[in-house]
Structure to design on (130 residues):
């Protein structure tokens, strides 16, 4: 259970619009970031939402990792993106890899500003000697 959970809310993204609406491109970029960081993608699920009177629909992209997951949600009408990266492993610390994925994706979306949070999850408790 021990791991690092990173989230980022990206505002005023200055990337090309296709990065906010093209599920295949977003999914490919996510897998590329995961692999470049040394994590293992074991599945992807992409969903494009229908357009609204406010503009094109956004995308949800999820990459299932051997080490946990990565999720991206876009709001093209607001030029906003939320990112969620969680890595855990009983035998290794993948925190640096999670940070590398987050940095790569933030660079892709070019936010005007971002709200970032980090949560350490599942601290391993040591059993007391009897």
């Amino acid at each position: 259970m021990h791991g690092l959970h990173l989230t980022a809310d990206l505002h005023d993204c200055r990337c090309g619009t296709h990065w906010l609406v093209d599920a295949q491109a977003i999914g490919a970029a996510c897998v590329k970031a995961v692999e470049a960081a040394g994590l293992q993608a074991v599945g992807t699920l992409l969903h494009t939402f229908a357009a609204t009177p406010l503009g094109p629909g956004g995308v949800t992209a999820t990459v299932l990792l051997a080490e946990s997951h990565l999720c991206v949600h876009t709001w093209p009408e607001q030029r906003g993106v939320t990112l969620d990266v969680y890595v855990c492993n009983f035998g290794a610390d993948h925190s640096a890899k999670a940070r590398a994925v987050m940095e790569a994706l933030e660079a892709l979306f070019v936010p005007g500003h971002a709200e970032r949070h980090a949560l350490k999850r599942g601290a391993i408790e040591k059993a007391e000697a009897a």
About this structure: Residues 23-37 form the longest helix (15 residues).
